[in-house]
Amino acid sequence: MNTPRPPLIELADRQEEAHAGELVVGPSRRGLCAQLAAFFRARPLEWVDGQQLASIAGAYGWRTRVSELRKPPFGMNIPNRLRRARGRVISEYSYQPADEKAVDR
């Protein structure tokens, strides 16, 4: 017996077929990446605590967004460092532009 699929599942199937093999990024996710990129570009060479990044790029997705900024089309060099302070580990990130002449000191 062939039972009809719920409309939302049919829609998801059609979207999956239309975008097979493509990474589809929704507008809010893309917007948060762009906001985070602008934040880093405004602070080159400055180490920023991950908690601050979470307030900009989303509490549950900021690490993923930092990772996405390292790939095209952004291609940003953003290393991570860990340090201990007052009994806790602090994770910090810094945008390191390829052209250091572009950095105002």
Q: How much is the radius of gyration in Å?
A: 19 Å
Strand order of the largest sheet: 1-3-2
Oligomer: single chain
Helix content: 40-55%
Query: How many distinct helices?
Result: 4
Q: Give the SSE order as H and E letters.
A: HHEHHEE
Quote the average pLDDT: 80
Estimate the global geometry from the Cα principal axes. globular
The major sheet is characterized as: 3 strands, antiparallel
Give unreliable regions as ranges. none
How is this structure best described in words?
This protein has about 100 residues and is of the alpha+beta class. The protein starts with 6 loop residues before the first helix and ends in a 12-residue tail after the last strand. The protein has helices at about 5-20, 25-40, 50-55, 60-70; strands at about 50, 80-85, 90-95. Strands 1-3-2 form a three-stranded antiparallel beta sheet. Helix 2 (about 25-40) crosses helix 4. It is globular, with a radius of gyration of 19 Å. Strand 2 and strand 3 form a beta hairpin.
